[in-house]
Amino acid sequence: MPIKHRVQRKSLKTSHTVSSPLGNPQAHQSGVLQKLLQEDPACDYDLIVIGCGSGGLSCAQEAAALGRRVMVLDLVVPSPQGTSWGLGGTCVNVGCIPKKLMHQAALLGQALTDSRKFGWECSQQVKHNWETMTEAIQKHVGSLNRSYQRALREKAVAYVNSYGEFVEHHKIKATNGKGQETYYTAAKFVIATGERPRYLGIQGDKEYCITSDDLFSLPYCPGATLVVGGSSVALECAGFLAGLGLEVTVMVSSQLLQGFDQEMAEKVASSMQQLGVRFLRKFVPVEVQQLEKGSPGKLKVVAKSTEGTEMIEGLYNTVLLAIGRDSCTKKIGLEKIGVKVNEKTGKIPVNDVEQSSVPYVYAVGDVVEGQPELMPVAVQAGRLLARRLFGGRLEKCDYINAPTVVFTPLEYGCCGYAEEKAVEVYRKENLEVYHTLFWPLEWTVACRDSNTCYAKIIYSKFDNVNCPFR
Predict the structure, then answer these.
(1) pLDDT tens sequence across 327-363
(2) Class of domain 199-323
(3) Residue list, annotated binding site for NAD(+)
(4) Assessment of whether the complete model's pTM goes beyond 0.90
(5) Rounded to an integer, what distance in angstroms lies between the CA atom of residue 173 and that of residue 192?
(6) Which residues are annotated as a binding site for FAD?
(7) What's the CATH number of domain 40-95+125-197+326-391, 3.50.50.60, 2.60.40.10, 3.40.50.12710, 3.40.50.2300?
(8) Could you tell me which residues come within 8 angstroms of residue 244 by beta carbon, excluding any fewer than 6 positions away?
């Protein structure tokens, strides 16, 4: 928690009246004085936010609510397959929201099976319609896009559907979809450009493969799908596709859910295998060939072992790449004003108040180096940043112990260190691990496996508290 310093202020008494707001107590109380002191009349805006994802929108709206002149810039560069979307960033359009809704669609399929044990008599000829699902999900996403636009209008935030790029200090170039350029200046900037899916860099990947940018609005059922990658996005997509009745294979070069607790990751994988998902471990694709065009078509994938010279081939209707994401910081002119960027990851190093190496440039969300890539965290970071910059507040975003959930068929929630990280930090002999299998009540009547659900708590003996599990 931040330490609040109590500062004594002495009032200055004068024998004459001053008509300027600087000498008006009411102006101080209403916030007009602070606004006048902070505004830079030489700039078009007090704040320009580049990127309209969750963190950027949160920061922009909070700054506007505090009386600042705010602009947001956002232009989605279409994916190699031509997919683009509206206001709101990754989470709303091609991330958390559509993913969770497709996950829910798969859960409903399992619920239909369970329902018979609870007395529901329904036809055995139940099937899923991909087009109906995606149409409904995209309709909901569109409503969220419109709600964000409405919120910006109501808060008097200027929204410009253009690509922002720094050209010099305090000045950016905004290029719209038609190539028209406009220039704007601001006293402060926030980079909230997020990330986009990474490609393999092999023959046929951008021509024939899709990513999470494309999947949630795909106009046809993907059919037999190869998911490449072991990330949370990879396993989540593989899980709901299998839950919808599709044939799914996951190809992973190393660990599943890297950075997460590996015991838990293997339990997630085991549950997916029981659902019919096939795992190809220690392989990476080296070529993707199109055998037939169509919706879906037919693709041949050639893959190589990461541990030897073995080569394998497979036929699929769709190849979904989920091998990681790259920060969108390379083409926005940061080098022109001296903002330091991690050359390997593209992420922006910041201090504990989200400030970059250039004092008037800040960053929130997935572009920030070393912080959790979670939508609620970005929202909180953006809101608190605006309050510190324009509201006189001191509170900083707490990035420690942010809970997260992986929406695989067996949902995995966690908070704090994975066991491997806890051993690294505290040493194994200083830890106690408590674990148990459990059987959810709703699984009992449905006769689902009683040895699947699992909980684990990692306790440090260094903590000065009594462990309730002893």
Answers:
(1) 999 999 999 999 999 999 999 999 999 999 999 999 9
(2) alpha beta
(3) 229-236, 324
(4) no
(5) 16
(6) 100, 164, 366
(7) 3.50.50.60
(8) 102, 105, 106, 109, 128, 130
